[in-house]
Protein backbone atom coordinates (compact mmCIF):
# COMPACT_ATOMS: atom_id res chain seq x y z
CA UNK A 1 0.00 0.00 0.00
CA UNK A 2 2.83 2.37 0.85
CA UNK A 3 4.52 1.46 -2.45
CA UNK A 4 1.38 2.43 -4.42
CA UNK A 5 1.05 5.73 -2.54
CA UNK A 6 4.71 6.53 -3.24
CA UNK A 7 4.22 5.72 -6.93
CA UNK A 8 1.16 7.99 -7.18
CA UNK A 9 3.04 10.76 -5.41
CA UNK A 10 5.97 10.51 -7.82
CA UNK A 11 3.61 10.62 -10.82
CA UNK A 12 1.80 13.69 -9.47
CA UNK A 13 5.07 15.50 -8.75
CA UNK A 14 6.34 14.68 -12.25
CA UNK A 15 3.16 15.98 -13.87
CA UNK A 16 3.34 19.12 -11.74
CA UNK A 17 6.94 19.81 -12.77
CA UNK A 18 6.14 19.28 -16.47
CA UNK A 19 3.09 21.55 -16.27
CA UNK A 20 5.14 24.24 -14.52
CA UNK A 21 7.82 24.04 -17.21
CA UNK A 22 5.22 24.38 -19.96
CA UNK A 23 3.66 27.44 -18.30
CA UNK A 24 7.03 29.12 -17.67
CA UNK A 25 8.40 28.41 -21.15
CA UNK A 26 5.06 28.77 -22.97
CA UNK A 27 6.51 30.79 -25.86
CA UNK A 28 9.20 28.18 -26.46
CA UNK A 29 6.74 25.29 -26.51
CA UNK A 30 4.31 27.28 -28.67
CA UNK A 31 7.01 28.01 -31.25
CA UNK A 32 8.15 24.40 -31.18
CA UNK A 33 4.56 23.21 -31.69
CA UNK A 34 4.15 25.59 -34.66
CA UNK A 35 7.42 24.35 -36.17
CA UNK A 36 6.47 20.69 -35.79
CA UNK A 37 2.98 21.41 -37.17
CA UNK A 38 4.45 23.08 -40.26
CA UNK A 39 6.66 20.04 -40.89
CA UNK A 40 3.78 17.60 -40.40
CA UNK A 41 1.32 19.76 -42.37
CA UNK A 42 1.09 17.39 -45.40
CA UNK A 43 0.46 14.42 -43.12
CA UNK A 44 -2.19 16.38 -41.18
CA UNK A 45 -3.89 17.42 -44.42
CA UNK A 46 -3.81 13.81 -45.56
CA UNK A 47 -5.50 12.63 -42.38
CA UNK A 48 -8.17 15.33 -42.75
CA UNK A 49 -8.85 14.42 -46.40
CA UNK A 50 -8.99 10.71 -45.61
CA UNK A 51 -11.37 11.43 -42.75
CA UNK A 52 -13.69 13.44 -45.02
CA UNK A 53 -13.63 10.97 -47.93
CA UNK A 54 -14.08 7.97 -45.62
CA UNK A 55 -17.88 8.35 -45.70
CA UNK A 56 -18.26 7.95 -49.50
CA UNK A 57 -15.56 5.25 -49.45
CA UNK A 58 -17.46 3.13 -46.91
CA UNK A 59 -20.71 3.69 -48.82
CA UNK A 60 -19.28 2.38 -52.09
CA UNK A 61 -17.38 -0.47 -50.42
CA UNK A 62 -20.19 -1.75 -48.23
CA UNK A 63 -23.27 -0.84 -50.28
CA UNK A 64 -22.46 -0.56 -53.97
CA UNK A 65 -19.61 -3.06 -54.46
CA UNK A 66 -20.39 -5.42 -51.56
CA UNK A 67 -21.55 -8.33 -53.73
CA UNK A 68 -18.42 -8.12 -55.83
CA UNK A 69 -16.28 -8.27 -52.67
CA UNK A 70 -18.14 -11.37 -51.41
CA UNK A 71 -17.62 -13.38 -54.59
CA UNK A 72 -15.21 -16.33 -54.44
CA UNK A 73 -14.56 -15.95 -50.71
CA UNK A 74 -13.30 -12.37 -50.88
CA UNK A 75 -10.99 -12.88 -53.83
CA UNK A 76 -11.77 -9.40 -55.16
CA UNK A 77 -11.55 -7.57 -51.81
CA UNK A 78 -8.45 -5.57 -52.80
CA UNK A 79 -9.95 -4.66 -56.15
CA UNK A 80 -13.12 -3.49 -54.43
CA UNK A 81 -11.10 -1.28 -52.06
CA UNK A 82 -9.21 0.26 -54.94
CA UNK A 83 -12.41 0.78 -56.94
CA UNK A 84 -14.16 2.36 -53.95
CA UNK A 85 -11.25 4.74 -53.34
CA UNK A 86 -11.15 5.71 -57.02
CA UNK A 87 -14.88 6.37 -57.28
CA UNK A 88 -14.92 8.32 -53.99
CA UNK A 89 -12.13 10.66 -55.04
CA UNK A 90 -13.65 11.09 -58.51
CA UNK A 91 -16.88 12.14 -56.85
CA UNK A 92 -15.03 14.63 -54.65
CA UNK A 93 -13.11 16.01 -57.64
CA UNK A 94 -16.35 16.47 -59.59
CA UNK A 95 -17.89 18.41 -56.69
CA UNK A 96 -14.80 20.61 -56.36
CA UNK A 97 -14.69 21.18 -60.13
CA UNK A 98 -18.36 22.16 -60.13
CA UNK A 99 -17.73 24.63 -57.30
CA UNK A 100 -14.71 26.10 -59.09
CA UNK A 101 -16.51 26.27 -62.44
CA UNK A 102 -19.83 27.68 -61.22
CA UNK A 103 -19.41 29.33 -57.83
CA UNK A 104 -15.89 30.82 -57.91
CA UNK A 105 -16.45 33.10 -60.96
CA UNK A 106 -19.60 34.50 -59.40
CA UNK A 107 -17.76 35.08 -56.14
CA UNK A 108 -14.96 36.90 -57.96
CA UNK A 109 -17.49 39.14 -59.70
CA UNK A 110 -19.29 39.87 -56.43
CA UNK A 111 -16.06 40.66 -54.57
CA UNK A 112 -14.82 42.95 -57.36
CA UNK A 113 -18.14 44.81 -57.46
CA UNK A 114 -18.12 45.14 -53.69
CA UNK A 115 -14.57 46.53 -53.77
CA UNK A 116 -15.52 49.13 -56.38
CA UNK A 117 -18.68 50.22 -54.60
CA UNK A 118 -17.48 50.19 -50.96
CA UNK A 119 -16.50 53.87 -51.16
CA UNK A 120 -19.98 54.84 -52.32
CA UNK A 121 -21.52 52.68 -49.58
CA UNK A 122 -19.47 54.50 -46.92
CA UNK A 123 -20.49 57.88 -48.33
CA UNK A 124 -24.17 56.92 -48.40
CA UNK A 125 -23.95 55.64 -44.83
CA UNK A 126 -22.28 58.90 -43.75
CA UNK A 127 -24.98 60.95 -45.49
CA UNK A 128 -27.71 58.87 -43.87
CA UNK A 129 -26.22 59.41 -40.40
CA UNK A 130 -25.79 63.15 -41.07
CA UNK A 131 -29.41 63.51 -42.20
CA UNK A 132 -30.58 61.60 -39.14
CA UNK A 133 -28.62 63.91 -36.82
CA UNK A 134 -30.01 66.98 -38.58
CA UNK A 135 -33.57 65.69 -38.36
CA UNK A 136 -33.17 64.97 -34.62
CA UNK A 137 -31.81 68.49 -33.98
CA UNK A 138 -28.73 67.31 -32.11
CA UNK A 139 -25.92 69.68 -31.09
CA UNK A 140 -23.09 70.81 -33.33
CA UNK A 141 -20.57 69.17 -31.00
CA UNK A 142 -22.12 65.77 -31.61
CA UNK A 143 -22.03 66.46 -35.35
CA UNK A 144 -18.31 67.25 -35.12
CA UNK A 145 -17.68 64.00 -33.26
CA UNK A 146 -19.47 62.04 -35.97
CA UNK A 147 -17.49 63.80 -38.71
CA UNK A 148 -14.27 63.05 -36.84
CA UNK A 149 -15.27 59.39 -36.59
CA UNK A 150 -15.90 59.11 -40.34
CA UNK A 151 -12.61 60.85 -41.13
CA UNK A 152 -10.72 58.46 -38.86
CA UNK A 153 -12.52 55.51 -40.42
CA UNK A 154 -11.54 56.65 -43.92
CA UNK A 155 -7.93 57.12 -42.79
CA UNK A 156 -7.82 53.62 -41.31
CA UNK A 157 -9.28 52.08 -44.46
CA UNK A 158 -6.67 53.89 -46.56
CA UNK A 159 -3.81 52.76 -44.29
CA UNK A 160 -5.05 49.17 -44.33
CA UNK A 161 -5.23 49.26 -48.14
CA UNK A 162 -1.66 50.56 -48.22
CA UNK A 163 -0.46 47.75 -45.97
CA UNK A 164 -2.09 45.05 -48.08
CA UNK A 165 0.20 45.51 -51.10
CA UNK A 166 3.53 44.69 -49.35
CA UNK A 167 1.98 41.57 -47.86
CA UNK A 168 0.87 40.17 -51.22
CA UNK A 169 4.28 38.54 -51.72
CA UNK A 170 4.09 36.75 -48.35
CA UNK A 171 0.52 35.73 -49.10
CA UNK A 172 1.56 34.33 -52.50
CA UNK A 173 4.40 32.31 -50.95
CA UNK A 174 2.18 30.97 -48.17
CA UNK A 175 -0.54 30.14 -50.69
CA UNK A 176 1.93 28.25 -52.91
CA UNK A 177 3.27 26.33 -49.91
CA UNK A 178 -0.27 25.50 -48.82
CA UNK A 179 -1.18 24.20 -52.28
CA UNK A 180 1.92 21.97 -52.35
CA UNK A 181 1.12 20.62 -48.86
CA UNK A 182 -2.47 19.90 -49.87
CA UNK A 183 -1.31 18.04 -53.01
CA UNK A 184 1.09 15.91 -50.95
CA UNK A 185 -1.68 15.42 -48.38
CA UNK A 186 -4.00 14.23 -51.15
CA UNK A 187 -1.53 11.51 -52.13
CA UNK A 188 -1.10 10.53 -48.47
CA UNK A 189 -4.88 10.36 -47.98
CA UNK A 190 -5.25 7.97 -50.94
CA UNK A 191 -2.70 5.60 -49.45
CA UNK A 192 -4.22 5.90 -45.98
CA UNK A 193 -7.75 5.23 -47.19
CA UNK A 194 -6.71 2.26 -49.34
CA UNK A 195 -4.74 0.73 -46.44
CA UNK A 196 -7.17 1.79 -43.72
CA UNK A 197 -7.88 -1.70 -42.40
CA UNK A 198 -4.19 -2.57 -42.33
CA UNK A 199 -3.27 0.66 -40.53
CA UNK A 200 -6.01 0.17 -37.93
CA UNK A 201 -4.89 -3.40 -37.32
CA UNK A 202 -1.26 -2.32 -36.91
CA UNK A 203 -2.19 0.42 -34.46
CA UNK A 204 -4.25 -2.04 -32.40
CA UNK A 205 -1.37 -4.53 -32.34
CA UNK A 206 1.04 -1.80 -31.22
CA UNK A 207 -1.27 -0.66 -28.42
CA UNK A 208 -1.86 -4.21 -27.17
CA UNK A 209 1.85 -5.04 -27.34
CA UNK A 210 3.06 -1.94 -25.48
CA UNK A 211 0.37 -1.41 -22.84
CA UNK A 212 -1.05 -3.79 -20.23
CA UNK A 213 -4.26 -5.58 -21.15
CA UNK A 214 -6.52 -3.35 -19.07
CA UNK A 215 -4.90 -0.13 -20.32
CA UNK A 216 -4.89 -1.30 -23.96
CA UNK A 217 -8.59 -2.15 -23.81
CA UNK A 218 -9.27 1.28 -22.35
CA UNK A 219 -7.22 3.06 -25.03
CA UNK A 220 -8.97 1.18 -27.85
CA UNK A 221 -12.34 1.94 -26.30
CA UNK A 222 -11.50 5.65 -26.09
CA UNK A 223 -10.35 5.57 -29.71
CA UNK A 224 -13.63 4.02 -30.84
CA UNK A 225 -15.72 6.54 -28.92
CA UNK A 226 -13.60 9.47 -30.17
CA UNK A 227 -13.93 8.33 -33.78
CA UNK A 228 -17.71 8.05 -33.43
CA UNK A 229 -18.01 11.53 -31.90
CA UNK A 230 -15.71 13.17 -34.44
CA UNK A 231 -17.30 11.52 -37.48
CA UNK A 232 -20.88 12.25 -36.49
CA UNK A 233 -20.21 15.78 -35.31
CA UNK A 234 -17.84 17.13 -37.99
CA UNK A 235 -19.61 15.56 -40.96
CA UNK A 236 -22.93 16.65 -39.49
CA UNK A 237 -21.70 20.23 -39.20
CA UNK A 238 -20.49 20.20 -42.81
CA UNK A 239 -23.81 18.86 -44.15
CA UNK A 240 -25.72 21.32 -41.97
CA UNK A 241 -23.66 24.23 -43.28
CA UNK A 242 -24.25 23.19 -46.89
CA UNK A 243 -28.00 23.13 -46.27
CA UNK A 244 -27.86 26.57 -44.61
CA UNK A 245 -25.86 27.89 -47.59
CA UNK A 246 -28.46 26.65 -50.09
CA UNK A 247 -31.41 27.93 -48.04
CA UNK A 248 -29.74 31.33 -47.57
CA UNK A 249 -29.11 31.64 -51.32
CA UNK A 250 -32.70 30.67 -52.16
CA UNK A 251 -34.13 33.10 -49.60
CA UNK A 252 -31.94 36.01 -50.69
CA UNK A 253 -32.76 35.34 -54.34
CA UNK A 254 -36.49 35.40 -53.57
CA UNK A 255 -36.08 38.67 -51.64
CA UNK A 256 -33.98 40.04 -54.53
CA UNK A 257 -31.04 41.03 -52.38
CA UNK A 258 -27.64 41.88 -53.89
CA UNK A 259 -24.56 39.68 -53.49
CA UNK A 260 -26.78 36.68 -52.75
CA UNK A 261 -24.15 34.06 -53.62
CA UNK A 262 -21.28 35.82 -51.84
CA UNK A 263 -23.25 36.39 -48.63
CA UNK A 264 -24.68 32.85 -48.71
CA UNK A 265 -21.18 31.36 -48.99
CA UNK A 266 -19.99 33.52 -46.07
CA UNK A 267 -23.00 32.55 -43.92
CA UNK A 268 -22.71 28.85 -44.82
CA UNK A 269 -18.95 28.56 -44.26
CA UNK A 270 -18.97 30.39 -40.93
CA UNK A 271 -21.93 28.28 -39.80
CA UNK A 272 -19.49 25.37 -39.34
CA UNK A 273 -18.17 27.19 -36.26
CA UNK A 274 -20.52 26.56 -33.31
CA UNK A 275 -22.04 29.43 -31.32
CA UNK A 276 -20.04 32.27 -32.92
CA UNK A 277 -20.37 31.19 -36.55
CA UNK A 278 -23.75 32.82 -37.28
CA UNK A 279 -22.50 36.13 -35.84
CA UNK A 280 -19.21 36.00 -37.76
CA UNK A 281 -21.07 35.55 -41.03
CA UNK A 282 -24.23 37.52 -40.42
CA UNK A 283 -22.94 40.78 -38.92
CA UNK A 284 -20.53 41.80 -41.75
CA UNK A 285 -23.11 40.82 -44.38
CA UNK A 286 -25.80 42.84 -42.61
CA UNK A 287 -23.50 45.88 -42.40
CA UNK A 288 -22.83 45.74 -46.16
CA UNK A 289 -26.54 45.56 -46.96
CA UNK A 290 -27.37 48.31 -44.44
CA UNK A 291 -24.90 50.66 -46.14
CA UNK A 292 -26.43 49.85 -49.53
CA UNK A 293 -30.10 49.87 -48.58
CA UNK A 294 -31.27 50.08 -44.94
CA UNK A 295 -34.59 48.32 -45.66
CA UNK A 296 -32.88 45.38 -47.37
CA UNK A 297 -30.43 45.25 -44.49
CA UNK A 298 -33.28 45.01 -41.98
CA UNK A 299 -35.03 42.33 -44.04
CA UNK A 300 -31.75 40.39 -44.21
CA UNK A 301 -31.32 40.56 -40.43
CA UNK A 302 -34.85 39.20 -39.93
CA UNK A 303 -34.26 36.49 -42.54
CA UNK A 304 -30.96 35.38 -40.97
CA UNK A 305 -32.53 35.24 -37.49
CA UNK A 306 -35.36 33.05 -38.80
CA UNK A 307 -32.90 30.87 -40.74
CA UNK A 308 -30.70 30.34 -37.67
CA UNK A 309 -33.74 29.43 -35.55
CA UNK A 310 -34.81 26.86 -38.14
CA UNK A 311 -31.26 25.53 -38.33
CA UNK A 312 -30.77 25.35 -34.56
CA UNK A 313 -34.16 23.79 -33.75
CA UNK A 314 -34.90 21.62 -36.81
CA UNK A 315 -32.02 21.02 -39.24
CA UNK A 316 -29.07 20.64 -36.86
CA UNK A 317 -30.84 18.28 -34.39
CA UNK A 318 -31.92 16.04 -37.31
CA UNK A 319 -28.43 15.84 -38.85
CA UNK A 320 -26.03 16.16 -35.91
CA UNK A 321 -28.36 15.02 -33.14
CA UNK A 322 -27.05 14.63 -29.61
CA UNK A 323 -23.67 13.33 -30.77
CA UNK A 324 -21.75 15.27 -28.13
CA UNK A 325 -23.80 14.71 -25.01
CA UNK A 326 -22.65 17.98 -23.39
CA UNK A 327 -24.50 21.15 -22.47
CA UNK A 328 -24.23 24.51 -24.20
CA UNK A 329 -21.78 25.96 -21.67
CA UNK A 330 -19.24 23.25 -22.53
CA UNK A 331 -19.74 23.86 -26.24
CA UNK A 332 -18.98 27.54 -25.62
CA UNK A 333 -15.90 26.57 -23.60
CA UNK A 334 -14.68 24.28 -26.39
CA UNK A 335 -15.10 26.99 -29.01
CA UNK A 336 -13.34 29.60 -26.85
CA UNK A 337 -10.39 27.41 -25.84
CA UNK A 338 -10.05 25.90 -29.30
CA UNK A 339 -10.10 29.32 -30.94
CA UNK A 340 -7.46 30.64 -28.56
CA UNK A 341 -5.13 27.69 -29.19
CA UNK A 342 -5.78 26.79 -32.82
CA UNK A 343 -7.60 29.65 -34.50
CA UNK A 344 -10.58 28.87 -36.73
CA UNK A 345 -9.67 25.18 -37.02
CA UNK A 346 -9.43 25.00 -33.23
CA UNK A 347 -12.91 26.50 -32.91
CA UNK A 348 -14.26 23.66 -35.07
CA UNK A 349 -12.44 20.68 -33.53
CA UNK A 350 -12.28 22.08 -30.00
CA UNK A 351 -15.88 21.07 -29.30
CA UNK A 352 -15.57 17.31 -30.07
CA UNK A 353 -12.21 17.18 -28.26
CA UNK A 354 -13.81 18.72 -25.17
CA UNK A 355 -16.73 16.29 -25.54
CA UNK A 356 -14.33 13.32 -25.39
CA UNK A 357 -12.54 14.79 -22.34
CA UNK A 358 -15.90 15.48 -20.70
CA UNK A 359 -16.94 11.86 -21.26
CA UNK A 360 -13.72 10.52 -19.73
CA UNK A 361 -13.87 12.84 -16.70
CA UNK A 362 -17.56 12.02 -16.20
CA UNK A 363 -16.86 8.28 -16.16
CA UNK A 364 -13.96 8.78 -13.72
CA UNK A 365 -16.09 10.91 -11.37
CA UNK A 366 -18.98 8.45 -11.44
CA UNK A 367 -16.70 5.52 -10.63
CA UNK A 368 -15.14 7.43 -7.72
CA UNK A 369 -18.57 8.31 -6.37
CA UNK A 370 -19.68 4.68 -6.58
CA UNK A 371 -16.59 3.56 -4.68
CA UNK A 372 -17.41 6.07 -1.95
CA UNK A 373 -20.94 4.73 -1.68
CA UNK A 374 -22.62 7.74 -3.27
CA UNK A 375 -25.60 7.00 -5.46
CA UNK A 376 -25.10 8.52 -8.94
CA UNK A 377 -28.40 9.77 -10.35
CA UNK A 378 -28.89 10.16 -14.11
CA UNK A 379 -30.95 13.31 -13.61
CA UNK A 380 -31.17 15.84 -10.83
CA UNK A 381 -28.80 16.30 -7.94
CA UNK A 382 -26.63 13.49 -6.68
CA UNK A 383 -27.85 11.85 -3.49
CA UNK A 384 -25.80 9.95 -0.98
CA UNK A 385 -26.65 6.35 -0.28
CA UNK A 386 -28.51 5.86 3.02
CA UNK A 387 -26.15 4.71 5.80
CA UNK A 388 -26.57 1.26 7.27
CA UNK A 389 -28.53 1.25 10.55
CA UNK A 390 -26.26 1.02 13.55
CA UNK A 391 -27.05 -1.36 16.42
CA UNK A 392 -28.39 0.59 19.35
CA UNK A 393 -26.91 -0.47 22.70
CA UNK A 394 -29.34 -1.72 25.38
CA UNK A 395 -30.62 0.98 27.72
CA UNK A 396 -28.49 1.32 30.84
CA UNK A 397 -30.07 1.34 34.27
CA UNK A 398 -30.02 4.74 35.92
CA UNK A 399 -27.26 5.16 38.46
CA UNK A 400 -28.34 5.30 42.06
CA UNK A 401 -27.33 8.03 44.41
CA UNK A 402 -24.65 7.36 47.01
CA UNK A 403 -27.03 7.84 49.89
CA UNK A 404 -29.50 5.27 48.47
CA UNK A 405 -26.70 2.69 48.13
CA UNK A 406 -25.75 3.14 51.83
CA UNK A 407 -29.35 2.71 52.96
CA UNK A 408 -29.71 -0.54 50.99
CA UNK A 409 -26.46 -1.86 52.52
CA UNK A 410 -27.62 -1.16 56.05
CA UNK A 411 -30.98 -2.87 55.41
CA UNK A 412 -29.17 -6.00 54.17
CA UNK A 413 -26.94 -6.13 57.33
CA UNK A 414 -29.89 -6.03 59.76
CA UNK A 415 -31.11 -9.53 60.96
Describe the structure.
Residues 379-391 and 396-415 have low confidence and may be disordered. Helix content is 83%, strand content 1%. The chain has 14 helices and two strands; from the N terminus they run αααααααααααααββα. By secondary structure, the chain is mainly alpha-helical. The termini are far apart. The chain has a two-stranded antiparallel ribbon with strand order 1-2. Helix 9 packs antiparallel against helix 13 and helix 11 packs antiparallel against helix 12. Strand 1 and strand 2 form a beta hairpin.
Keywords:
globular; single chain; 415 residues; disordered C terminus; mainly alpha; 2 strands; two-stranded antiparallel sheet; 1% strand; 14 helices
Q: Overall pLDDT, averaged?
A: 75
Q: Could you say which overall geometry the principal axes of the C-alpha atoms support?
A: globular
What's the N-to-C terminus distance? 69 Å
The fraction of residues assigned to DSSP E strands is: under 5%
Task: Provide a count of the helices.
Answer: 14
- Rg over CA atoms: 34 Å
Low-confidence stretches: 379-391, 396-415
Strand order of the largest sheet: 1-2
What does the main sheet amount to? Answer: 2 strands, antiparallel
Given the helix and strand composition, which structural class is it?
Answer: mainly alpha
Helix and strand sequence: HHHHHHHHHHHHHEEH
Instruction: Tell me the total number of β-strands.
Output: 2
Helix content: over 70%
Amino acid sequence: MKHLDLKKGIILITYGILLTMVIIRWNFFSDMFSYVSSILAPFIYGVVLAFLVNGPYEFFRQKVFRRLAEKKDGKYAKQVRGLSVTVSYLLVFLCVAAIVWIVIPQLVISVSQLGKNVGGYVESAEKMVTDFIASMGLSDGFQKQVDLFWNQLGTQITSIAGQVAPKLIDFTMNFTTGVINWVIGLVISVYMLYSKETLIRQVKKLVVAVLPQRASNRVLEIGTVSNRIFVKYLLGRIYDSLIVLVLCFIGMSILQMPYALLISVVVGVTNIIPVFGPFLGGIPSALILLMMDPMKGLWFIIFVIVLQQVDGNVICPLIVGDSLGISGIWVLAGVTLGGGLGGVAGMVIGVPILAVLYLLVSEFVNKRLQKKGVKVATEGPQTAAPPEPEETPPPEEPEKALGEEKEETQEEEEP
